[in-house]
């Protein structure tokens, strides 16, 4: 199975997280072929040069050659590149497993957190773009942990 790993990758923390997570998946499920865009130096070595067309062609080719996409949804908002990749996957009926680990989603039934929703500026939860998450849910699932991600991948093997 070929997997496209869509994730933000410009901060060192993002790159390290992606490397750690992909290494863990590769260790647990060695039969998978995982494309991690940051490993493609031809377009993502930021000391070199790749224009927008080169990046779009290279990554779209990899999305279209994949059987499954993993999309990291964490951050202030869903990364613009990740959202674009999700759109390509949806258009080509490639299932997506969204990984959303934001701790603010916890405590969803806490009465004080729910009451705070009515107060301006007191939302205790994080917002994800509903169009993008809807595209994922139409042909995939969103999970909230590395363990759930690996379990979901395993189900699809």
TrEMBL record:
Pfam families, A to Z: Nuc_deoxyrib_tr
Gene Ontology MF terms: 5-hydroxymethyl-dUMP N-hydrolase activity
InterPro entries named among the record's database cross-references: 2'-dNMP_N-hydrolase, Nucleoside_deoxyribTrfase
GO biological process entries: deoxyribonucleoside monophosphate catabolic process
Protein name per its UniProtKB record: Nucleoside deoxyribosyltransferase
Organism (species): Enterococcus alcedinis
UniProt lineage: Bacteria, Bacillati, Bacillota, Bacilli, Lactobacillales
